[in-house]
């Protein structure tokens, strides 16, 4: 049986290695790859996303658990991605993500926004040299839908270095990212249980390393497979998990050259730990030791420049 799996894998890889398909017209979305959009190209993506705790049977919560340290039962959200080719080797990337987190007795609406610039540092200028790109930007998350706070938000400055090489239909990439996060909470005037309205302001940083593969099929399809290891560098005596393993798979189908259907899933080994930084604090640190799976469905539109 193992021999047949090896033969099947080899047959699948042969077109990728032997072909000369150009990946330059591939969608960029939020993929950590060393490609930029052509100058003045506009790429707009819209997704609906959902996380449901029914995907995993080990998410049973104690009967007396407080919602603050149990994590959301489900999450519904919508995401908009807007990318623009500023110059031949420079792309502006933005994203907005609205999530409605259901904690059972309470809901929390979280608005997330990010903006970054991707600059190609090398585009095979030496022939054998790989593509290299650098991203720098800002991410922020915000909510005012809290029981004991007027608002809470976080702001993250990040920089990412990505290297990749095209082998026919296959485009593997490796990346390393560093970010610094500032979390700010404004206490509400309504009081509440001791400790829940104070002490949430803090800073933290993180390191993220990952692999991202784009695989283009001859039948108008593109697959993204990605794995990342996210390590949070926290202080302030916080406990709980300090790392998260995240795996993503996307399937993109080109209905036309300018209209693409997207579907995919994300596996979070430690739920949204590190994904929305302000969710992790001294009151919730025991609520991130669970798995979560997100599914999403949407489309991408491409608009050419002059």
Distance between the termini: 54 Å
Q: What value does the Rg take, in angstroms?
A: 21 Å
How many beta-strand elements?
12
Shape: globular
In the sheet with the most strands, the strands line up as 1-2-3-4-5-6-7-8-9-10-11-12
Which percent band covers the strand fraction?
over 45%
- Topology as a string of helices (H) and strands (E): HEEEEEEEEEEEE
Mean pLDDT: 81
Structural class: mainly beta
Q: Approximately how much helix is present in the residues?
A: under 10%
In DSSP terms, counting alpha (H) and pi (I) runs of 4 or more, how many helices? 1
Largest sheet: 12 strands, antiparallel, barrel
Q: What features would you highlight for this structure?
A:
single chain; 306 residues; mainly beta; 12-stranded antiparallel beta barrel; 1 helix; globular
Description:
The chain is mainly beta. It contains one helix and twelve strands; from the N terminus they run αββββββββββββ. The chain has one helix at 2-18, and strands at residues 42-52, 74-87, 90-102, 107-122, 131-143, 149-164, 170-187, 202-217, 221-233, 243-254, 259-268, 292-303. The protein has a twelve-stranded antiparallel beta barrel with strand order 1-2-3-4-5-6-7-8-9-10-11-12. It is globular, with a radius of gyration of 21 Å. The model is unreliable at 4-22, 61-67 and 193-197 (pLDDT under 50).
